[in-house]
What we know:
The chain is an alpha/beta fold. Helices cover 32% and strands 14% of the residues.
Amino acid sequence: xxxxxxxxxxxxxxxxxxxxxxxxxxxxxxxxxxxxxxxxxxxxxxxxxxxxxxxxxxxxxxxxxxxxxxxxxxxxxxxxxxxxxxxxxxxxxxxxxxxxxxxxxxxxxxxxxxxxxxxxxxxxxxxxxxxxxxxxxxxxxxxxxxxxxxxxxxxxxxxxxxxxxxxxxxxxxxxxxxxxxxxxxxxxxxxxxxxxxxxxxxxxxxxx
Length: 208
């Protein structure tokens, strides 16, 4: 499969071959599912916490005597039945992360990219270098490339001008070819690669 390479003005600059084998059939969908679920689970803080009977503040004094008052028996102000008492089986700090093998992650990324390539949602630019960190200049590039809606921009290395110019654009996410993951590929309407970043991703996917 070949991709058309454009410049920052949206003009064709030739073609490049996709250097990794595409997944043509319906396989690897489970790998995509497992990888996305694991990624989103890892984003959870897991800091929800409640106090049990032994942790709430209070005294050990018995509220009233055991017999003779006509009231129900009570032995603690920290009882879960009382307002301000402990919580029974409440949430505790926990780790939601799941383990995903490296080969599964690579397969899921290849599957996701294959689907986006076949759908025509992937674009490649020869380079993406801005003269200044101005959002106006960055938006002009997006307009020339006809990128509308949400977009994932995959660059090569850390470009300060590109990072600063794009951070105020809510519908744009910036990453690098080394950090690209399956969830990022799937969540945006369009995926824009620089030539170098696409080559870096292809090298990742070609590894055994």
